[in-house]
Amino acid sequence: MYRPLPTICRRSFSMSRLSNSSFPVNAGLEVEEASPHVYHVRLNRPDRRNTFTMELWKAMKTTFDALAEEPKCRSIVLSGNGKSFCAGIDLQQGMGEMIKMLTNNDIEVGRKGRILRRMITTCQDGFTAIEVCPKPVIAAIHSHCVGAGVDLITACDIRYASSDAVFSIREVEIGMTADVGTLNRLQKIVGNDSWTRELAYTAKDIGADEALKFGLISRVFNTRDDAVEGALALAKIIAEKSPIGIQGTKEVLNHARDHSIQESLDFVKTWNMSQLQSTDLRDGAMAAISKQKAVFEDV
């Protein structure tokens, strides 16, 4: 049994919509400060089930690059408005530009390949921006999470889901190889090559219980709202910790995933040569000794 996380009293903090020009407007995203130091990013194409277009991929990178540099931001929740978390690629709008280019006989094959490479890089960069963002990102998933939706959540640090969540790696159904992160990250998340290949080769749907069993998600909630509230509550707990400690922990965990143990041990030694000189260590230690709650400065 999971112990329930504390809930956030939304009335205790006024939701403030960000007006900073670093955040895209009308690009399929909403960004709000949900509570002090906790930012909430919502996919906002509900009429298209939050499917991805090139504009939305570009907006993801712009948004998470900006949040990475925002001193007040310490943790992030990612969710989706409407009936689905994310139903993949928008085949009408998102694929239209690519199909038009591919069927243009005036463009020779080599140059088509270069255009495709740039397009794929744009999509990859949109989700990699989440992975390299120094602030932990918690996905709150509901209903459909397919294709690009799975690519998206595998770039997040932590994944919560409602009981109605459905996951699927759908790319083989439309004649393509998943190229935006799922095949590169899912194995490392779940540690099960056979199960990853089963999903990737069959495009079958799996429910929240199976996703929990194999470690794709870490908690299941009754409803979408419960999953979002749980993610916000966890983000609030993280935001109260030392931002120096949290951001360093994410950096070291990401490094350890892709390197040997010894390489990672050497990396964290070098990291802490500077970071242990932060006032966060002093303030945290003094608060612990005096049995008070530490208050840390923004980074």
UniProtKB/TrEMBL annotation:
Q: Where would you find the membrane-spanning parts of this chain? A: none
Source species, domain of life? Eukaryota
Main location per the UniProt record: other
Single GO term (MF): delta(3,5)-delta(2,4)-dienoyl-CoA isomerase activity
InterPro entries recorded for this chain? ClpP/crotonase-like_dom_sf, Ech1-like, Enoyl-CoA_hydra/iso, Enoyl-CoA_hydra_C
* Catalytic reaction equation(s): (3E,5Z)-octadienoyl-CoA = (2E,4E)-octadienoyl-CoA; (3E,5Z,8Z,11Z,14Z)-eicosapentaenoyl-CoA = (2E,4E,8Z,11Z,14Z)-eicosapentaenoyl-CoA
Give the protein family: Belongs to the enoyl-CoA hydratase/isomerase family.
Designated name of the protein: Delta(3,5)-Delta(2,4)-dienoyl-CoA isomerase, mitochondrial
